[in-house]
Each structure stands twice: as C-alpha cells, then as structure tokens.
Amino acid sequence: xxxxxxxxxxxxxxxxxxxxxxxxxxxxxxxxxxxxxxxxxxxxxxxxxxxxxxxxxxxxxxxxxxxxxxxxxxxxxxxxxxxxxxxxxxxxxxxxxxxxxxxxxxxxxxxxxxxxxxxxxxxxxxxxxxxxxxxxxxxxxxxxxxxxxxxxxxxxxxxxxxxxx
Amino acid sequence: xxxxxxxxxxxxxxxxxxxxxxxxxxxxxxxxxxxxxxxxxxxxxxxxxxxxxxxxxxxxxxxxxxxxxxxxxxxxxxxxxxxxxxxxxxxxxxxxxxxxxxxxxxxxxxxxxxxxxxxxxxxxxxxxxxxxxxxxxxxxxx
Lengths: 165, 142
Fold this sequence. Notes:
The structure holds two protein chains of two kinds. In chain A, 75% of the residues lie in helices and 0% in strands. By secondary structure, chain A is mainly α.
C-alpha cells in the first residue's frame, strides 16, 4: 500500500495517465449521448446547452489526444479503448439522465470528476521525489493546462445551471 | 483516498482477518509504515471519533469509523475491479494498492459507471486475499 499522495515510478504515472484517458473517454461519450438525446431538431433546445456539450466533446477528445501523446513515450500495455466505448454504450442506457436538469447535473459531475482527477494527479507528481524517465515538467505543464480547461468546463455548466434555476 | 481513509480501511480489514481488535504491528505491516507512525495516526483517528485504542489489545473502529472504512473499501474495490476488468491489468491488486492514494471517491464513482460491481459490495471483499470474492479475471489467451 502506498501512503501519501505521490507517484512512485514511471509505470504508476503511465497507469494514472491511462485512467485519465478513460475518464476523458467517459466524458466525451456521455456528452455525445446527451447531445444525441437533444434531437430531434424540431424540438426547442437551449442553444447554450448544445454549445456546452459540443465544446465538452471536443475538449475531451483533445485532452485524450494530449494524454496519449505522453503515454506513447512510456512502456505500458495499450488500453482496449474500443471495449471501453462498448462499456460506456452499454451502461449509458441504465444511467441516462431523465430530464434536462439531470443532464446538466451529469455533465457537471463529469467535468468535476475530470478536474479533481487532474488536481490530485498534479499534487501526486509534485509530491514525488522520483526521477522520472520522461520530462516531468512537460507532463505537469500539460496536466495543468488540462486542469485549467476542466475548471472552465465546470464554471460553464454551473453558469447555465444557475441561469435555469 | 487520503491517508486517514487508508488507515481506516486497513483497520477494518485487519479486524476482519484477526476477528478482533487490529494490532498496531499488523497495521504497520499492512501499510508499510513504522509502528510509531501507525500509533500516531491511530491517535488522530481516536481523537476524531473513528477508532478506539486499547493498550496491548489493539484498535477497534467505532460505528462512524466503520462507515468511513466501508466507503474507502468500496473505492478500493472499484479501482481493483476497474484495473482488472477494464484496463486488463494482470497485477491489479498490487497496482490498486499503489494507486489508491491518488484516486479519490469522486473519480472512483465515475469509473464505477463502467464496471460490474455487486450490490453487496464491500461485504464480498475477501480480506485475506485482498480481492472481491466475485471478481473474475479473463484468462490470458495462449
């Protein structure tokens, strides 16, 4: 058991980054499902919500790509992403939001989860005295950028929720 | 999962294994810390009302302590199951132990949406083997 929040070696770092990729995959997939649920087009949709979800899909895909670039430099088995997509697909039906407010709340949870994950990961890397094989400063710079964007995502959902309240 | 929750989980599991109070030595071994460090944290948990410590006997969780320990164990079960079944990690137990300090319950809750966890979790956790008794891992193809 590893006490204290820190990353002990490159392998752990790679695994945590993979978990980050899965979280982004989850966020992207759920936001896309939410978007799809807003169809048919004749239905009146809050355009801000549509923009919010489209931005979330794009942002998660971008974050995933940036994490994968780092992981490519590390020696770790590839993640079976197609299977993960299938799992998200299979479980979405049971956990799909029942209404619009539910959908926004789900989106808020997704954004907050991603933010919390990066915040903890950054703390754990900063708290580590490991001499990583890859450039830890580069990794931290990428993670801090992603965390900031996730924070922006949380703020945007919160604004819309407050406006609708 | 923060350090206090890791201790609570360890005490909960040690109590299960020892069928009684958890000894400081057992906890120190489980958490890979010195007995002095374990004693210090036990003192803090006692002050917070999560544990009772009796000299020469060991530590027992209070009701509040049990609630938090079980939540921490659920978080751990999610991580273990996620590593084994989603990322298909062979050494999932070792990796879960190494990563649990970085994965908090908010993150675990999201990972939980794509794993197949039993409703009786964490009662189905086999403390001696450090794994859910229902966890099935796909055998590697030859």
